[in-house]
C-alpha cells in the first residue's frame, strides 16, 4: 500500500508520517527532504518537482513490490505530481493557508481527490488516520 501524505511546507506532513508509521504493519517511510538530500537535488522548478514525484514513486513502488506498506510525505504540489506518484491513499494535510516558500504557494493546487483530510490537529490525529488506513487495507485484502 502506497500512502501519500501531502500538503504545504510546514503543514505537519512529516510529524504525521512519523507517528502513523508506528501504527501500520511492515511500513517504510520516506521523507521528501531526505530523499532530495540523498539525490543531491535541491532544484524546485516544475521539471524538478516532476522528477521528485517520479523519484518518490520509484522508491515507494520498490517497497510495495517487496510486500511492504510505504508512507511518503512530500508537498506533491500539483495534480500532475500526484498523478505521477500513483498513491493508493492520499492524505491531505491542510492545516495552513500559506507555506514558507512563495513559489510553492503560487503553484500549489488543492487536490480534487483525497482519502483523508486533516484540517486541524488533535492529540490522536495519527491514531484516527491509522484506523482509516487499516480499515482500507482490510477491505483491499492488503
Number of strands: 5
Gyration radius (Cα, Å) is 14 Å
- Spans where pLDDT lies below 50 across 5 or more residues: none
Indicate the multimeric state.
single chain
User: Main beta sheet: strand number and arrangement?
Assistant: 5 strands, parallel
Distance between the termini: 7 Å
Q: Helix coverage percent of residues?
A: 40-55%
Going by helix content, strand content and strand pairing, the class is alpha/beta
Q: How are the strands of the largest sheet arranged? A: 2-3-1-4-5
Q: Report the mean per-residue pLDDT as an integer.
A: 93
Task: Based on the model shown, name its key terms.
142 residues, alpha/beta, 5-stranded parallel β-sheet, 6 helices, 46% helix, globular
List the helices and strands and how they pair.
Blueprint: E1 2-6, H1 13-21, E2 27-31, H2 32-39, H3 46-65, E3 69-73, H4 79-85, E4 89-93, H5 102-107, E5 116-118, H6 125-140
Parallel strand pairs: 1-3, 1-4, 2-3, 4-5
Characterise this structure.
The protein has helices at residues 13-21, 32-39, 46-65, 79-85, 102-107, 125-140; strands at residues 2-6, 27-31, 69-73, 89-93, 116-118. 46% of the residues lie in helices and 16% in strands. Helix 1 packs across helix 6 and helix 3 packs parallel to helix 4. 31% of the residues are buried. It is built from six helices and five strands, in the order βαβααβαβαβα. A five-stranded parallel beta sheet has the order 2-3-1-4-5, with helices on both faces. With 142 residues, it is an alpha/beta fold. Strand 4 (89-93), helix 5 (102-107) and strand 5 form a beta-alpha-beta unit.
